């Protein structure tokens, strides 16, 4: 067995141990609650009446706070945590057995991952537009409390811990020049990239609303949202275009903001690496207030990260100083979220944020030094009106406007003389406008509960302009779509029916039609089935189709052509001096990329083991019609039979003239000869020609129990992945998973969190599998796996007199063992000797933070 296999087996064993649970815990009794949305004090009184438990609280503590509706079968403790969510209040049990509700020492969010909501509950989950629906898709919930426990300071770091996520694409430290065009991070942000299918194939939402594309790859910078404003993040690892439309191929990440927050919290964080470089600091202020009819939240975050230079990592070879391995970054973001009831039936709300990030990198090859500074500014505002209609129906009208300017420069100088060689600048400027209206409610009453439906429609407009100084005709364009959707949830059997061997049986279905101005219409269905034989076990399955519309740059980029010798393009048998015309251009004829997805999930949450959850999912994604440049090896363009459909031999003068007219000034004559004498035209325009297939298993679990006077939670996740890619239709499939610059076959993260009387400790082990480095001719090997340990230690002072009151101190150590990335020999000068998409070059980073709640 290889070393990589041993580490993978060790990680799997650690994960299995983390998931295991003792059997002596006793189940908490369940009570059926029916409490409407109202003032928190009234809700607590009704909770006491319906449960028979004594609950003590003062009107001063609950004044100005509201509770969401609760219609569910829960334990008293889980119901109480649900009502107190986002209030800044906690609870404890007094010596006489009564529950005491009081202010928390810090504003901590509650983990609701254990809560099973019954039909009709006033909760909307990601992956469905129906309130109280039991979704059949596997969903991972990451709460604000979990983020705090693990010492994460931004959402980019949170998603990079996710086992189902591939850290290539748009993420800090991803090195420019990888073979996959999507592995670039021009703007310095972070984008989710589920299954490694691309940051443009994973949809990111905020409070269920679409955000603005950033840069040229249709990616969304999730780190632009201040982490202090986040209540939780729900990640659906399943195709969801039937619910949300384009881009939701690999899944959806929905960032849900804190709602009824009262108080002010300030935090400062600073850290550095022990190998040098990569120092960071962060300052944040979060303020909010809640009253009987509404509330608001305002969060500001400022951060700075210093670069890491190649000279500061002695295991990195082949780079001349001052090449950077990690971009420098300066970041400011401000977010506002507010809501106000206008009478009994109308709530007006608005979410808005502004984000600014300056970043940059340096690359030196020979005597040429390339400086690539960028400035990104993003503005988004999204108002909404929620309506409480009669008969249990609700309605929503909302819209979004977003604008993103991703400005860049390329400055090349002679590193010895300082003389300027090349200087250019530009902007990938994007705009987003959406408008949507929808309704949801019960249609008919069935024995198992209400058959509920959701329906609606809307309009979306996206535009991209690539602006350059002195260019009066910038590249880019716009596209618009209109859509209509419908969704239903059918509860065949509910727990209240007491049917033998069927605790719950429900079916969900969704259908969405989206019509684009340029590419036509797309119909996407989805079906889901949930079967629970007992309250302890659930079996879920889903099937659906998803799609991704062609990216804006793919449709509207500027054309380019070059006249090169036929021999360079792989031509043989041509007379000396024969040339061929190589053309690259946009395509307005691109059809959507399409996917068929299937998942089946087994969930275990035994009542006999309180606090234990285990979820195992199988997934399969068949992703076809992917947009690619078909001739991926230009040096074989005229010799590889697979490229024949893209070659025009002995072109006419009219065909050559059409290519030259399409490119305009972007034509390079490398031979100096007449282009009309070309023996061939190689058309490398984008086309729907590639396909990816990925499948595998996800394992997630947690177990929380009393330990040494406090609470200990074991938590872990792992993802096993396999996949192939067919570059051209009809061609042979090639392995992608486990290959350099692609996802590894296994990623896992497992650890523990212990808390007691203000103290908190977390320790997590991370495993990223090996990759086969076959891209470099100099060395084709399988690298070692990458194993790291993260630690976090916290202490909350609690309520005291003076400035020491409500302080929390924390120290976080990422990669505590200072493990370097696995290495290989790179034969190309501008690429590092490690896989920057899978393995971090940062090393051990120690951070300190102080948080105060006022």
TrEMBL record:
SMART domains per record: STN
Signal sequence segment: 1-25
Subcellular location(s) of the protein: Cell outer membrane
Keyword Transmembrane annotated: yes
Alphabetical keyword list: Cell outer membrane, Ion transport, Iron, Iron transport, Membrane, Receptor, Signal, TonB box, Transmembrane, Transmembrane beta strand, Transport
Keyword Signal among record annotations: yes
InterPro entries per UniProt: Beta-barrel_TonB (IPR000531), Beta-barrel_TonB_sf (IPR036942), Plug_dom (IPR012910), Plug_dom_sf (IPR037066), Secretin/TonB_short_N (IPR011662), TonB-dep_rcpt-like (IPR039426)
Domain Secretin/TonB short N-terminal: 53-104
Membrane topology qualifier: Multi-pass membrane protein
Organism domain of life: Bacteria
Gene3D superfamilies found in the cross-reference section: 3.55.50.30, TonB-dependent receptor, beta-barrel domain (2.40.170.20), TonB-dependent receptor, plug domain (2.170.130.10)
Family label: Belongs to the TonB-dependent receptor family.
Name under which the protein is recorded: TonB-dependent receptor
UniProt source species: Sphingomonas colocasiae
């Amino acid at each position: 067995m290889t070393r990589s296999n041993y580490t993978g087996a060790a990680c799997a064993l650690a994960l299995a141990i983390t998931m295991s649970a003792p059997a002596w815990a006793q189940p908490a009794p369940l009570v059926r609650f029916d409490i409407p949305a109202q003032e928190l004090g009234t809700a607590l009184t009704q909770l006491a009446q319906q449960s028979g438990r004594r609950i003590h609280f003062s009107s001063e503590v609950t004044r100005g706070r509201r509770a969401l509706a609760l219609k569910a079968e829960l334990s008293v403790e889980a119901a109480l945590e649900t009502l107190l969510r986002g209030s800044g209040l906690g609870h404890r049990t007094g010596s006489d057995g009564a529950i005491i509700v009081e202010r928390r020492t810090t504003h901590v969010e509650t983990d609701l991952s254990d809560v099973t909501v019954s039909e009709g509950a006033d909760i909307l989950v990601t992956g469905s537009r129906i309130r109280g629906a039991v979704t059949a898709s596997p969903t991972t919930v990451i709460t604000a409390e979990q983020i705090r426990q693990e010492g994460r300071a931004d959402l980019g770091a949170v998603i990079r811990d996710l086992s189902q996520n591939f850290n290539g694409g748009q993420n800090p430290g991803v090195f420019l020049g990888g073979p996959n065009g999507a592995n670039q991070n021009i703007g310095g942000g972070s984008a989710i990239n589920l299954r490694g299918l691309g940051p443009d194939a994973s949809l990111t939402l905020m409070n269920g609303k679409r955000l603005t594309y950033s840069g040229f790859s249709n990616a969304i910078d999730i780190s632009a949202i201040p982490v202090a404003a986040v209540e939780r993040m729900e990640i659906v690892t399943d195709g969801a275009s039937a619910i949300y439309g384009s881009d939701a191929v690999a899944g959806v990440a929905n960032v849900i903001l804190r709602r009824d927050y009262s108080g002010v919290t300030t935090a400062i964080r600073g850290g550095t690496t022990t190998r040098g470089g990569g120092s960071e600091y962060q300052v944040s202020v979060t303020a909010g207030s809640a009253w009987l009819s509404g509330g608001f939240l305002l969060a500001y975050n400022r951060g700075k990260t210093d670069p890491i230079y190649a000279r500061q990592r002695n295991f990195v070879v082949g780079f001349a100083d001052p090449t950077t391995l990690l971009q420098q970054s300066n970041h400011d973001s401000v977010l506002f979220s507010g809501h106000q009831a206008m009478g009994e039936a109308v709530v007006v709300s608005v979410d808005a944020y502004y984000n600014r990030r300056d970043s940059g990198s340096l690359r030196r090859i020979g005597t040429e030094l390339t400086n690539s500074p960028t400035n990104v500014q993003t503005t988004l505002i999204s108002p909404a009106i929620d309506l409480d209609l009669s008969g249990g129906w609700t309605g929503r009208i909302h819209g979004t406007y977003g604008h993103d300017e991703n400005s860049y420069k390329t400055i090349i100088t002679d590193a010895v003389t300082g003389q300027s060689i090349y200087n250019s600048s530009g902007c990938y400027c994007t705009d987003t406008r959406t408008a949507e209206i929808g309704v949801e409610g019960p249609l008919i009453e069935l024995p198992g509960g209400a058959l509920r439906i959701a329906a609606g429609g809307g309009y979306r407009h996206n535009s991209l302009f690539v602006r350059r100084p002195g260019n009066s005709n910038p590249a880019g364009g716009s596209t618009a779509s209109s859509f209509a959707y419908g969704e239903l949830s059918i509860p065949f059997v509910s727990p209240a029916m007491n049917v033998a061997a069927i605790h719950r049986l429900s079916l969900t279905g969704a259908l969405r039609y989206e019509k684009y101005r340029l590419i036509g219409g797309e119909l996407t269905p989805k079906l889901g089935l949930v079967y629970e034989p007992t309250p302890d076990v659930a079996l879920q399955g889903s099937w659906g189709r998803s799609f991704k519309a062609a990216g804006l740059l793919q449709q509207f980029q500027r054309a380019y052509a070059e006249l090169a010798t036929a021999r360079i393009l792989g031509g043989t048998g041509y007379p000396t001096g024969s040339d061929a015309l190589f053309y690259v251009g946009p395509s307005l004829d691109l059809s959507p990329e399409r996917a068929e997805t299937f998942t089946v999930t087994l969930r275990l949450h035994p009542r006999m083991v309180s606090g234990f959850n285990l979820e195992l999912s199988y997934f399969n994604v068949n992703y076809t019609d992917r947009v690619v440049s078909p001739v991926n090896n230009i040096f074989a363009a005229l010799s590889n039979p697979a490229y024949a459909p893209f070659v025009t031999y002995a072109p006419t003068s009219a065909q050559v003239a059409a290519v030259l007219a399409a490119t305009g000034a972007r034509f390079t004559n490398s031979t100096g000869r007449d282009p009309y004498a070309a023996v061939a035209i190689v058309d490398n325009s984008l086309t729907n020609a590639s396909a990816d297939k990925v499948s595998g298993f996800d394992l997630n679990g947690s177990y929380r129990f009393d330990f040494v006077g406090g609470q200990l939670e074991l938590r872990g996740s792992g993802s096993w992945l396999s996949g192939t890619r067919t570059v051209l239709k009809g061609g042979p499939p090639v392995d992608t998973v486990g290959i350099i610059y692609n996802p590894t076959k296994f990623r896992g993260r497992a650890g523990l969190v212990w808390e007691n009387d203000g103290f908190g400790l977390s320790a997590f082990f991370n495993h990223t599998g090996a990759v086969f480095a076959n891209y470099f001719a100099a060395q084709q090997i399988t690298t070692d796996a990458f194993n790291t340990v993260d630690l976090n230690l916290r202490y909350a002072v609690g309520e005291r007199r003076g400035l020491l009151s409500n302080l929390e101190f924390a120290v976080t150590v990422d990669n505590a063992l200072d493990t370097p990335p696995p290495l290989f020999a790179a034969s190309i000068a501008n690429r590092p000797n490690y896989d920057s998409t899978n393995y971090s070059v940062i090393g051990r980073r120690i951070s300190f933070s102080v948080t105060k709640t006022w």
